[in-house]
Amino acid sequence: MSGLGPDDVRDRPERWRVVGASTPFEGHVFNVRRDRVEMPRGDGSEVVGRDVIEHPGSVGIIALDDRDRVLLVRQYRHPVGRLLWEAPAGLRDVAGEPLHELARRELLEEAGYRAERWDTLADVYPSSGMSDERVRLFLARDLTEVPADEIDFERIHEEADMPVVWVPLDEAVRKVLAGEVHNMIAVTGVLAAHAARAAGFAGLRPLDAPED
After folding, report:
1. Most CB contacts within 10 A, which of 63, 68, 98, 151?
2. How far apart are CA 102 and CA 89, in angstroms?
3. Which phi-psi region, left, alpha or beta, contains residue 6 (left: φ > 0; alpha: ψ -120 to 50)?
4. pLDDT tens digit string along 84-141?
5. Is 90:179 a contact under the CB 8 Å cutoff?
6. How does 24-40 read in b/e, with b if 16+ C-beta sit within 10 Å?
7. Does the active-site annotation cover 106?
8. Is the pTM of this model over 0.85?
């Protein structure tokens, strides 16, 4: 037995010694770094290679209206060869931009809405075995639709045709559990919003809560 209990279940920083590193690939969005990591045996005799996708990180937004409906957009995702229903989301691609301001911008640009009430919903590492990408999920409420002519943003490429659908939160949960929705941000956000609603939205962190 490990001697650990529920009170010990909290992720914490840890970094094993890296004795060498190279970057065999540099891309537009992400790089691939190859580390040689010393395993914690104490004698330095076991060094293994670990490939790391260096990713700038992103945010996702679960927008919930006053009828308990969640906003989803559909987008083509080439790596998986699917049209996926997703929550609005975006890369952390502006240096120094606060995460909640990025979330406001993405909700407006991708879905055409503003929100008066913002809370931090969850923080996730979507592919921690291969990538350092970190995603912060926000819950957006008290929504107002913004006329298209007031949005200074042109959708191109995969974003050129993204339909928006409002789905009752309970139905969205059913779709997640039935395997009808696969996007990580949508799946995590829908389930987290459902749990938060069941608790009366008590305990949610403020929109500018620090990332541990």
Report:
1. 63
2. 9
3. alpha
4. 999 999 999 998 999 999 999 999 999 989 999 999 999 999 999 999 999 999 999 9
5. no
6. eeeeeebebbebebbee
7. no
8. yes
